[in-house]
Each structure stands twice: as C-alpha cells, then as structure tokens.
Design brief:
- The chain is an alpha/beta fold and 209 residues long.
- It has a single domain, classed as 3-Layer(aba) Sandwich (Rossmann fold), CATH 3.40.50.2020.
- The chain binds 1-O-pyrophosphono-5-O-phosphono-alpha-D-ribofuranose (PRP) and uracil (URA).
- Uracil (URA) binds next to α6.
- 1-O-pyrophosphono-5-O-phosphono-alpha-D-ribofuranose (PRP) binds next to β4, β6, β9, α4 and α6.
Length: 209
C-alpha cells in the first residue's frame, strides 16, 4: 500500500465533514468538492519537477524555478468527477481535460464504460484521474485500464472518500498508480455505498435526487 497517500490536513477533514452533512445543499456541496479538489491537488502535485529559467527582476537577472515542461491531463470519471475539475484547473490552468464515462449498475454494482475521450499525446502526459468516491473500486480500476489501453503511463488518482475494500482492490489491480485519498471511511453497506460516506456524489453535485 506504499502508493496510497492519505490526506491529513485539517482543512480537508473539515470540508469533508461539511460534505457529508445531509443538510448541505447542492450549491455548497459543489463549492466544497471544488475546494477539496484544489487542496488535495496541491498535495498530490508536490512532486512535480521544476526547471530553472532566466528571469529579470527590477533588481537583477536571476535563474528561478518553474514547472518543467511536462504536459498534464485531468481526467474526471463522469459524472461526479466533473465536480473536481475546476479545483484542479485553478492549480494548473494549462492542463488539458479528458473524460471517461462510467456508471455502476444499481443491482450488480459492476461499472460500465459509456464514453472515453482523452487529450492527444496521452503517453507523454502526467494524468490525474479524479472521482470523489472510491467504493468497490470497480469504476476507478476500469477507468485506469481504459487510460493505460490508450497509452497512458504516468497516472495519479484522487478520491475524496474511499472504502477500505476499494483501496485494496485498486492497489492490487494498479500497484504502479499513486492514489490520493481525502478520507478512508469504515466500510461498504449492502448496496455498496460507503459508510458513513456522503450518499450519492453525482446526485448531490448535480441535484438530480
Ligand atoms: C459513483 C462514483 C464513482 C463510483 C464509485 O458513480 O462517482 O464513479 O460510483 O463506485 P465503485 O468504486 O463501486 O465503482 P456512479 O456510478 O454513481 O455514477 P454517477 O457519477 O454518474 O452518478
Ligand atoms: N458512489 C457514490 O456516489 N457513493 C457511494 O457511497 C458509493 C458509490
């Protein structure tokens, strides 16, 4: 499990608690997801390489660091992952955005892919897959499979809330992928929902319930 990173920052924990509250409405829920994505992205991108470039300050010429030319792709898993995109783009405005459509069958909980469009030169990019929920792990495993099948190599994933069952399954399937988790919850219930969780992330972001 060495490729799994659990967030410790109290601001992330505070905002996740507000997300969980059933009284939190759609508008606030969306803002919280965006803010948490930005805080988690800050942690997840802490190992980005930099290179020194010349810069002329009002005082003198110097060589100072900027992010090295590696291209980035943010890939939300539809629908709920869409809520995390703006937070990541606030950190890296030049990133391209791909999309993977997945839905879980309500009875079997098995994910089904219905859409996949990734930016060009995906093999050269750092790819950050975002989805607020990692429950059984099926959706994220299949999304990373789909990205690898299309040439993606350098992949990180960010999930706001995860169940232990999903983390274990994901790390078995993709031991090479770094996984960033906002909070590890207790377990899954009989409907494969995360406990205590926050309910259905897609419905709460888009107000479809
Ligand atoms: C949710 C969530 C994840 C998936 C997690 O999406 O956003 O993609 O479930 O569950 P898993 O780990 O058991 O696969 P859902 O299928 O409800 O689709 P939606 O985002 O369109 O509502
Ligand atoms: N998908 C969600 O949106 N919530 C869960 O608890 C599990 C899967």
């Amino acid at each position: 499990m060495s490729n799994v990173f659990y967030m410790k920052h109290p601001l992330i924990k505070h905002k996740i608690t507000k997300l969980r509250d059933e009284k939190t409405g759609t508008n606030e829920f969306r803002s919280l997801v965006e803010e948490i994505a930005m805080l988690m992205g800050y942690e997840a991108l802490a190992d980005l390489e930099t290179e020194n470039v010349p810069v002329k300050t009002p005082i003198e010429e110097s060589k100072e660091p900027v992010i090295a030319g590696r291209k980035m792709a943010i890939v939300p898993i539809l629908r709920a992952g869409l809520g995390m995109v703006s937070g990541m783009l606030a950190l890296v405005p030049s990133a391209k955005v791909g999309h993977i459509g997945m839905y879980r069958d309500e009875e079997t909980h098995i994910p089904h892919e219905y859409y996949c469009k990734l930016p060009p030169h995906i093999d050269e990019r750092l790819i950050v897959v975002v989805d607020p929920m990692l429950a059984t792990g099926g959706s994220l495993i299949d999304a990373v499979d789909a990205i690898k099948k299309r040439g993606g190599k350098n992949i990180k994933c960010m999930c706001i809330i995860a169940a232990p069952e999903g983390v274990e399954k994901f790390t078995e399937a993709h031991p090479d992928v770094q996984l960033y988790i906002g909070n590890l919850d207790r377990c899954l219930n009989e409907n494969a929902y995360i406990c205590p969780g926050l309910g259905d992330a897609g419905d709460r972001i888009f107000g479809t319930k």
